[in-house]
User: Fold this.
Amino acid sequence: MNKLFDVINPNFFNVLSSPNKEIYVDCIFIIYDSLDSVEDAFQGDREFVMQRLIHYFDEMELKGVNEFDDNRTSRQKATAVINYFKESGWLGEEELGDYKTSLNLFDYTIKIVDTLRSIKDRDQIEYTGEIFTVYSVLQNFVLEEGLGIIEQAYDSTNQIIKNLKGLKANIYRYYYDITLNQDAQDLQNLLEKLLVEYKNNFFDNAYYNLKTKDSLPRYKKAILDKVLDIYNSDEIMNSLALQTMEAKKIEDYDEAFHYIEEKVRFIADSFNAFDYLILAIDRKNEQYVSAAASKILFLTNHSDDIEGIFNRIFKIVVDSDEDSFEYDQLFNLFHARNLDTESLYTQRRLRVDTDPEPVTVLDDLITDEFKRKKIQFLVKNNIYGKKEINRYALSQLSHLGEIEASELPLDTEEDYIKLILIFLYSRSVGMDYHVEMLGRETTSNFATFNNFLIKRGR
Assistant:
């Protein structure tokens, strides 16, 4: 069994845990870009790379930043960085003759640098037709090229799984930030994360394509039918096994047959299981949107009910100096205990069956004012639910097919909350409307926001 540090240098990850890790990451990106040339066969002249690093350190010095807190020149710093990368196993050096030296990245270095840059740039998953790719190659299945087609379909299926797993993990990251992360979450930050970052990175890229252009139900049946036709045909499977023996240099027929059978079954099993993974993604999205909506409602609640009172108390406590804050101004706390002069053991009593008596409620004891307040409380807790927001949106649309959000009434705080929830719930299951961004800001009464269209139907 292969071990990781038999392949890479044991000191490889020291670069990322060093106190100067920010500098080293910048430098490895510079080296990576310097070697990114097909004409040079992805190998860079050492002096060219050195000049790029020297320019980087010169710019930092002009900004008044002394990266290593020493008096070395920019060239000395660049030389030290390259030597450190060589010692840590990030790159190698090769003599080309004529006093020329080239720097080369290792294969695993390229993979890790690509990953680091993707994380740094917050690259999001975009579905560019992986499901359609599987559908296309299988529909154009030709026996003479069967092995290559099966392997291509297998690789694309595997990529779909990775994308879906990454998509689910991406939603969880947002959910974690809003529910479990202990950092302060003010209303402005929450709305920006939800209506801008989450929308752009999740709704507009991955999720939208998953539900529309690259929809699973659109191609699933045709893919499974074709895979089963291949799997159930002894002639095709035999020919594929022979192709595998020749292409993979496998001498045993059973081993070659198992190789191709495993890939065909993987494609079929994966497409049968995708529905469950997509359902989990839908539920996680619903969970995040609901959590965000609840937090927005909490942060905007300044009423005189229990929730509003606690909201204001929490704000006072959070904004105050913890050391000097006197909590007895808000709470009347005291220590209470139940003392028992006898044994800790309580003697068991025999169970006595009681005869139930009817409960008589006198209408005179329930006033009209009490009934009115009770009904008002029940209605308040329902006006922000999905059904009520769906009904509210349809009532605003009336007989129209679409309406701009700026045309909705924004006279009260309740209207503002409903506007936000219309956007949040637009992708939820069971809603009878959807929204489309217009890409321009608008101001309505006291609120400024990115305008969007509310359209009837899904």
